[in-house]
Amino acid sequence: MRELFDLQSFYRDFAKAADQGGFRGEVLLEMEDGPLMAWEKVGNGPVVYLSAGMHGDEPAGPLAALEMMERGVFDDNRHWLICPVMNPGGLALHTRENREGKDLNRDYLKMETLEVAAHIRWLDRRPVPDLFVSLHEDWESTGFYFYEINCGNDRPEVAEAIFSATSVVMPVEPEVFIDGHEVREAGWIFHCPDADVPDHWPEAIYLAKKGCPLSFTFETPSSADLVDRTRVQMLAFQELLKKVVP
Ligand SMILES: [Zn+2]
What we know:
This protein has a single domain, classed as Zn peptidases (Aminopeptidase, 3-Layer(aba) Sandwich). It is built from seven helices and ten strands. The protein has helices at residues 7-20, 60-70, 88-93, 114-123, 156-166, 203-210, 226-244; strands at residues 24-29, 36-41, 47-52, 79-83, 131-138, 145-150, 177-178, 181-182, 188-190, 214-221.
């Protein structure tokens, strides 16, 4: 089923909520389908960077970012960096890739796409995040899973806490191999800070190389109900915050 995503109304709602939440929005790149935008709220606490909408056929992430903005999840105790729609063209077309057919999440070494180049220009002028979270979806899985890249302390109880929060809504992905990775525990890919394909860095590898010590990539199954997927993204994110940047 094709899930419609109205970029214009999304941005209107997001900008309104972000404004009320004390965020400042910035246009990183003007595009045919709408701008690539970033929002920031400077705070004294840990720097948390959230990205969503990198793949245009994965709407749960942007919707979760919007709902959390409306609910005031992005409080005054942390320094927030938020990019809710990394791929405006893909969201408008409902395609994984951008309008030029490029997978943005493989372009973080070469930075050949306008979107990634503009995004990096913005990100590199910001403090290195203490925590990076990216919201994605998967067409092949049946349950929720995530990637963790951890260059600091190994805390297995964090993964456990996330799954106990999400499993009230959605099962944990049962496959032992997910996208070519053997899981550490069910639904949990403990990834090294290197790209699977050397020249095709995803955003999470860029962040790790930049010195961000901890990153999580959440993946909800596209076959599940969109409301549940959005809810699971929010539950996982909020549980993670509680555990690692309280
Ligand atoms: Zn994705």
